[in-house]
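Recall the central idea of this unit: under ordinary conditions, the amino acid sequence of a chain determines the structure it adopts. In this exercise we apply that idea directly, starting from the sequence alone.
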Amino acid sequence: MSAKESKGTVVLAYSGGLDTSIVLVWFIEQGYDVIAYMADIGQDEDLEAARAKATKLGAKKVFIEDLKEEFVTDFIWPTVQANSIYEDRYLLGTAIARPCIAKRQCEIAVKEKAQFVSHGATGKGNDQIRFELAFYALTADIEALAPWRMPEFYKRFVGRQDLLDYAKEQGIPVPVTKKSPWSMDANLMHISYESGILEDPATHAPEGLYKMTVSPEEAPDKKEVLEIEFMKGVPTKVTNKTDGTVKDTPLELFQYLNVVGGRNGVGRIDIVENRFIGMKSRGCYETPAGAIIREAHLDVEALTIDREVRKVRDMLSVQFTQQIYNGLWWSPESKLIRKFISDTQEHVEGVVELALYKGNITILGRKSPKSLYDAELVSMDVEGDYDPRNSTGFIKVNALRLRENARLRGGDI
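Accordingly, the structure predicted from this sequence is:
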């Protein structure tokens, strides 16, 4: 098909896997020019092999973008400052990667004067929403193409066997085998596993599933002690007190905590969560560095952040976490909340010492030059500047509405 007959250019978020390879070939078959785009966010894959594969399959251009440093500093760090955690357990490893990937994808689309952007996310999951809300928030003049919501695509590929058959017809290499009957998404923050045998929430995740972490039972029998330094609510240095290793750049320390946490069995969860689209799903996650940093950050905050400021930040953190999960990172309200949360971290500075042992993270101690903790004031052995008689009036004032409620409506006795 000539350039004049082309339906336009689409920038496809390409992984090199089965689904996006089929999407790439299918777009070309439908008359589109395809630019394959791969974001290196620490997924530990052979991206040059994926480049060669995309080129062989017919991609007009291939972009491989190293976003690892940006992913840590511009996306992961704000979630650390907010103590973001979805439904009490999920540290947002996949959700926070999507706005990072989408940003560079849109920049490429604008640069290459592409009319369309696309992804390989299914019509049942969260990622379709996250990608497309990001696309439209970043570039109002572009159109998102979602093959798994296009009848001409999903009616042709009803099940996985249809994909495999098409791949065979088109000469597309297939990396999926019967030995791995689940899907996996990896980046610096975590690895997630879902679908296949994991769709039954009662089915135990096989031990061979996990890639980043050893089983806690197989972890060393000796604890490993770390010291993590924070400045403005983000880690700036990690020192392994057990073997002397020191890491002091954002990317290096995050990668190192993944390694040390992984070898100590830290960061595994197996959960059922509520997708934004309205259904429940089961997922298994490994987030060793994220789990370690969150525990340490909570602890240094306990020393340094004002009680009422923390209350307000925590209320906004719930909204912020929901925004990330639902794909609203680039929304005006999310930008506003990020600015506020960043301000709350001005004095969150200090050092936390902790131990890793067989899947557990144990805080050993903490200190900070910005600490609001006064040992003499709180001591049971020293009176200090506090007059215990002041508590009498404090209690009476706070008890006023309680006593009135009991007097006018009757107590519970």
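The chain has a mean pLDDT of 94.
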